[in-house]
Amino acid sequence: MLSRPVSRLLIANVARRSFTSQARNNSRQQYQWSRSRWNFSSGKSSRLAAVTALSGGIAFVLHASTSPSDNKLSTPSKVDYNQVRKSISALLDDNNYDDGSYGPLFVRLGWHASGTYSHIDSTGGSNGGCMRFQPESDWDANKGLHLARERLESVYRAHPGLTYADLYTLAAVVAIEEMGGPKIKWRPGRNDHKDGKQSPPDGRLPDAAQGAQHIRDIFYRMGFNDQEIVALLGAHSMGRCHTDRSGFDGPWTFAPTTFSNEFFRLLLEEKWQLRRWKGPKQYEDVRTKSIMMLPADMALIEDPEFRKYVLQYAKDADKFAKDFATAFEKLLELGVDFKTTDGSRQGKNTSLWSRIFG
Ligand code: HEM
Q1: Which residues form the domain of 338?
Q2: Domain assignment present for 29
Q3: Cα 354 to ligand 1 centre (Å)
Q4: Which of 112, 159, 193, 236 is an active site residue?
Q5: How many structural domains are present in the chain?
Q6: CA torsion, points 342, 347, 352, 357, in degrees to nearest 10?
Q7: Which of 111, 146, 283 for mutating ligand 1's site (highest number of atoms within 8 Å of CB)?
Q8: Is the residue at 150 inside a domain?
Q9: End-to-end alpha-carbon separation of the chain, Å?
Q10: Domain contains 269
């Protein structure tokens, strides 16, 4: 029997050979899914330095301590999350969608639901499930994600007690695992808000046209460091860009429904040139012209500090998978308070108020 990393690479290689520039125009490539699973225990999320937390000032403390009005509190004990996982899995494959899977779109849904978090004022994050409401549903950055939310609606209805906020994040976790990625620690407890009034301001998700400084601004705001940023961006081994969503076009790898470290390997090993087309500035590989990189992706090899981690992850797929699992778990929990069995609240990224005063 082949080892998991070897079998994954074989899949990627077969896919690469069969992936022609024609495939860019015909978005119905079929890939065999690697269903192998890695099981890593996740390390502790890095704590925010007190000095960073204090930078928001007392006004922010008052703001952060006001509790949101939720219309649906998560009742995790009533929900069979193994069944929820199965229901999500059953929705992933679809030959008529993109490369044959909703997996990458589910990953993007979980990430965009969470990536609005700011540790400056503890607003944003996956709690609330607000992307189903305006204004968040209408943000340019969230174009196309209604397809994922609509696809998941049947799962929400089939599992009373499940919240949208938990569903959107669990869908990302299940999708990654089913695409051959690592097991990601996930726990329920997010509540649903009754409208979009508590959505943070637009503009918190990254702009793909920009470079290293912008990426740091966005991810430091969430509390991530350079290593975690690079690990997270490795998610671009999955999925593709769509001209009717972001305006960009094409997949990053030759096996876009497989979780792998191919994004890093290709970044380093392929030659990249500007694509000549009417769309926004993006790069294509010189050899096949069938895969792409965003300006923001290229920043990972242009910036020396980011590049260090790209080199590590391109060489060591297991390290990438392990670091990705840890960073992704942290991302999905940003700003979420989890209820403990004694009724108290406990979260890794709770408000400044609770971090200081317990
Ligand atoms: C600097 C940070 C990032 C930028 C600028 C960025 C940008 C983009 C863009 C422009 C798309 C194409 C959307 C479309 O047209 O459909 C995309 C797709 C995607 N992104 Fe990112 N992204 C970033 C970070 C992340 C992170 C942190 C994750 C997850 C951990 C992620 C996961 C994905 C996935 C899975 C897709 C494919 C979606 C699909 O196939 O429909 N991205 N990203």
Answers
A1: 49-357
A2: no
A3: 32
A4: 112
A5: 1
A6: 30
A7: 111
A8: yes
A9: 52
A10: yes
pLDDT in tens, the chain (358 residues): 334 444 444 444 444 434 433 443 443 433 333 433 333 333 333 444 433 444 433 333 333 333 444 567 777 778 999 999 999 999 999 999 999 999 999 999 999 999 999 999 999 999 999 999 999 999 999 999 999 999 999 999 999 999 999 999 999 999 999 999 999 999 999 999 999 999 999 999 999 999 999 999 999 999 999 999 999 999 999 999 999 999 999 999 999 999 999 999 999 999 999 999 999 999 999 999 999 999 999 999 999 999 999 999 999 999 999 999 999 999 999 999 987 544 445 555 444 444 444 3
The answer to the question of residue 13 being in a domain is no
In this structure, what token pair is assigned to residue 129?
């499930």
Assess whether 252 carries a catalytic annotation: yes
- Token pair 């994050």 is found at 125
**Is 193 among the catalytic positions?**
no
Q: Which pair of tokens denotes residue 106?
A: 């589910």
Instruction: With beta carbons less than 8 A apart as the criterion, state whether 270 and 293 touch.
Output: no
- 334 with 195: CB under 8 angstroms? no
CATH number at residue 324: 1.10.420.10
Select from 29, 117, 241 the residue to mutate for testing ligand 1; criterion: most ligand atoms less than 8 Å from CB. Answer: 241
